[in-house]
Prior knowledge:
- The protein has helices at residues 13-23, 48-57, and strands at 34-37, 40-44, 63-66, 85-90, 96-102.
- By secondary structure, the protein is an alpha+beta fold.
- Strands 1-2-3-4-5 form a five-stranded mixed β-sheet, with helices on both faces.
Amino acid sequence: SKGLKSDVNFVSDETLISIKSQLGIPTGLTSCHSATIGKYFIEGHVPAIDILRLLIEKPKARGLCVPGMPIGSPGMEMGNNKEHFQTLLVSENGETQVFNRHV
């Protein structure tokens, strides 16, 4: 949690797909978890440090995503086994750029 409080809601797959669409999460970048914080979406296993940076920098964007479920990302820890992964910033027009790299 790293100081971030969350409220969890369990919804049907159909509802979750609808929520992802309403938030503007690009279909090819979806993962198993969706959240909102302020005006931003957080999609997938995004590290807390990236969320905190997003809230400090406040870029013009829709949100952050970590596509898939990379080993070693928050909630996907498997000992010392880690995949390199990127946190992507999704701009207001749906384009992405690398927000942070994790090794």
